[in-house]
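[step 3/7] inverse_fold.run input=structure_tokens len=386
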């Protein structure tokens, strides 16, 4: 059985030495003090990582997370409402060309039922995630958002349904959506082009993110760790982009091959590098909402716990009906496909309390995000450190 020491996972170690390099350690301290590092400095920090350096980084990342959020972990109820997708990303199991994907759509009533189940379990954030499914016209999505908003006015609605024109984002914002997740995947144009078909571009992805920001959404971006072709220089660019964009959320997880995709034979990203990057992100963007993702839980039985110990503060258990869960397969071996919403919720409760965290049920807004008084986030209460 695996355990929770961050010093002792099964990944290959990036260095044979356990010594704390004073130069690199000083870079981490500068980051923790809010200083901006350059691209080359970030590259050194990533390439020069050792278990000892990672421990130091995790410690500072936990301190920073605790300063803003205490030991509270925000839960978001994920509803995967359609796995149809018009896109053809080379890494994703939902890609249009994957004839083996067993497609489904939830009705508005299904989605509302999921929200009600989630609400009764204490969830106050619902994340509607799906492929880019033309059946869900802007108006249909707006109607779903409005219906949720009406039934659960004290809950936050997050959308994660891909690239749209600004007018559509605006329609959904006016319908009551307040947050939007759209990973940028990689800041580098050539790397982006190597992961996506020619109709997709990094430029349009960035246009979307800027539109979302300008419409007042709390925006989440992010990337896969060790997606094929990713270099340390790409990662440094991603980190600098995160710093400059100032997102409210950052979703990162290891790349995991899905066998029916063009990248299905590539190697998965490592737990070790994903944790290191989570901790760097916590120091670069201290108040960011940072999920310990399902992909992290998929590559290691305690991946999500280890993510929290590296500075994450969000988990996103699944509220989708059990009948459809096994069909939303972005990657192979996804966890929790056999569980009910309540099972995941209580399982996470237990797992988190074992490592000194508690799952909290309020909306969980990003600390410091400008909001109206009616939806202002609670002031962080705990200032403890691990
Ligand atoms: N491995 C890991 N993450 C993936 N995603 C899509 N396919 C994979 C995969 N094979 C991520 C992408 C996308 C998010 C919804 O899921 O980063 O933005
Ligand atoms: Fe739809 Fe990848 S194919 S998100």
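[step 3/7] decode complete -> sequence:
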């Amino acid at each position: 059985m695996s355990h929770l020491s961050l010093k002792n996972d099964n990944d290959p170690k990036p260095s044979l030495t356990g010594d704390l390099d004073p130069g690199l350690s000083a870079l981490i301290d500068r980051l923790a003090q809010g200083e901006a590092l350059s691209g080359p400095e970030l590259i050194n920090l990533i390439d020069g990582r050792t278990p000892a350096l990672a421990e130091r980084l995790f410690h500072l990342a936990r301190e920073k997370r605790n300063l803003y959020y205490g030991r509270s972990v925000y839960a978001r109820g994920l509803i995967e409402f359609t796995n149809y997708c018009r896109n053809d990303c080379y890494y994703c199991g939902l890609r249009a060309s994957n004839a083996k994907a067993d497609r489904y759509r939830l009705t508005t009533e299904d989605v509302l039922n999921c929200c009600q189940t989630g609400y009764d379990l204490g969830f106050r954030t619902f994340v509607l995630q799906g492929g880019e499914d033309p059946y869900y016209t802007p108006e249909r999505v707006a109607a779903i958002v409005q219906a949720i908003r009406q039934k659960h006015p004290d809950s936050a609605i997050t959308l994660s349904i891909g690239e749209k024109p600004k007018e559509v984002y605006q329609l959904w914002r006016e319908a009551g959506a307040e947050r939007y997740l759209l990973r940028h995947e990689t800041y580098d144009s050539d790397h982006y082009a190597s992961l996506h078909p020619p109709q997709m571009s990094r430029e349009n992805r960035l246009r979307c993110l800027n539109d979302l920001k300008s419409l007042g959404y709390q925006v989440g971006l992010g990337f896969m760790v060790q997606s094929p072709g990713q270099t340390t220089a790409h990662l440094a660019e991603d980190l600098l982009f995160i710093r400059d964009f100032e997102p409210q959320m950052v979703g990162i997880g290891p790349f995991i091959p899905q066998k029916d995709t063009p990248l299905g034979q590539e190697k998965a990203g490592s737990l070790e590098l994903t944790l290191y990057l989570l901790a760097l992100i916590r120091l670069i963007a201290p108040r960011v909402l940072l999920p310990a993702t399902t992909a992290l839980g998929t590559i290691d039985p305690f991946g999500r716990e280890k993510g929290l110990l590296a500075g994450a503060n969000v988990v996103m258990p699944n509220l989708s009906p059990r009948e459809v869960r096994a069909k939303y397969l972005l990657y192979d071996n996804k966890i929790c496909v056999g569980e009910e919403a309540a099972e995941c919720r209580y399982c996470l409760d237990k797992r988190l309390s074992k490592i000194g965290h508690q799952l909290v049920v309020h909306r969980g807004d990003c600390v410091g995000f400008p909001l109206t008084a009616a939806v202002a986030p609670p002031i962080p209460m705990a200032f403890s450190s691990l």
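[step 4/7] annotate
Residues 91-92, 183, 185, 224, 253, 255-256, 258, 295, 330-331 surround 5'-deoxyadenosine (ligand 1) (CB under 6 Å).
The CA atoms of residues 4 and 295 lie 17 Å apart.
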